[in-house]
Amino acid sequence: MRPRLAPLCLLAALPALAQGFPDTPEFGGSKVFSLGLNPMGNSARFDQAPAGWYLGTTGGDLKPKDETKALEALAGAMAGDSLAYAGALSLLNDTPWALRGRSYGLIMSQAGGVHGSLTREEWSSLMAAPDLDPSHRGSGAALALNTTSFDLRRAIVDRVVMGAGSLQNGVAYGFAVRVEDWHMGRQTAALKPLPGQLSIGDPKGLLDFKDTTERHLAATVDGGLIMELSQGIRFGGMVDRLVPHTFDDIKEQPQLRAGLQMDLGSFAQLSVESDINEAARMPFVAKQRTLSASLRVAANPTVQLLLGGQRRTMAGVASQAFGATLYIRAGSFMLGAGMQVGQDKPLMGLGLKVQ
């Protein structure tokens, strides 16, 4: 068996949780109309991935664009600039969440759309709850009443996915069975900590939280379909977590996602897709929903460019992200590199195909 490179992937951003390949809207791709490599993508697209074995790894931060500024402003206020609390807490209220993680994946694709994968993801998250009461800042006595806090979470999951998807007579169906082993931890850091809480310390170091104290085993089923509505126009739909599971205070319910794809001549495809309902997803208690658009351009048989944007709404706060991925293919060689625009520590990754 001779190793050869196939998508070598520099990733950016995700959500939701990245699976090791640039195959989601955060970096210019699509979830409903995926490339067939994402275990959490549309299972009806599993037949799009060339047969072979794939290795992948990712790492980096996911967060709203100004979240780093908010933590830096809070650090400055805590260092002695009490007048800066108002601006820092207001900015933190507008950008309350952040995620730091890495993942590893081994993916097998076979002819006929058969998929198998083993992935491991490690994530640390924060969700801020700023106290915006004007009477709780400005003096030492006032700050003693300030209840600003951060919900810190740690999640490690080992995931096995088996599924299949194929196209027949203009309609593709797919399914995937997921078995997951979760290790989780939770802590609260506060500006004025109560017994059992952590002190905020350096706000920029909160994503270094690593403790895990609980374990959950979960299993579920995902499904998807693709329909050719007419020449060059497709409808796609998918649902994940058909079997709900509760992780302490986080209840993951089924989430529906649908989209349309249109061929733009013979060299480009435009996709628009959205979650139909809001749903909580680990490691955040807050429900979230995303709307995204992507453009796949095949400039020539060798070069393919993915461009995309996504709007994520979580806990009533909306944030936007834009990404791009470039693929270069020559025979059996295929290289891809992508990045999310505007992040100070973008999620990045590497993939290798062996055959």
Brief summary:
The protein has 355 residues and is mainly beta. The protein has three helices and 18 strands. The protein has a domain of 240 residues.
Write a structural description:
Helix content is 7%, strand content 53%. The chain has a 16-stranded mixed β-sheet that branches. Strands 9-10 form a two-stranded antiparallel ribbon. The protein is elongated, with a radius of gyration of 21 Å. The chain has 3 helices and 18 strands. With 355 residues, it is mainly beta. The chain has a domain of 240 residues.
Q: Termini separation (Å)?
A: 6 Å
Any low-confidence stretches, pLDDT <50, length ≥5? 1-20
Q: Quickly count the helices.
A: 3
- Give the DSSP E fraction (strand runs of 2 or more residues): over 45%
Summing up helix and strand content along with how strands pair, one would put the structural category as: mainly beta
Mean pLDDT, to the nearest integer, reads 87
Helix percent reads: under 10%
The succession of helices and strands, N to C, reads EHHEEHEEEEEEEEEEEEEEE
> What global shape is seen?
elongated
Largest sheet: 16 strands, mixed
